[in-house]
């Protein structure tokens, strides 16, 4: 009878050891999973920031292209107005004077 009780006690001790070992493994696995999750989040954040930076750079380049085109168009218009003034400023002045005299 004592040997049966001893065997049961031994089985119980072994079972407790196995359960404790399983708890430790579970805890370690949970820690590893959390670590991997955290690393995934960091990697994703880094990748997202890189993509956003590329989008920002591309947008900035597009804005610069549009601004350059507009500057060139404006400069062309200014040059045309200057040319017209150079060619016709005496006529404009005479018309202004004549209009002032007529009034």
From TrEMBL:
Residues 19-102 form a coiled coil. Keywords: Coiled coil. This is ATPase. It comes from Dorea amylophila.
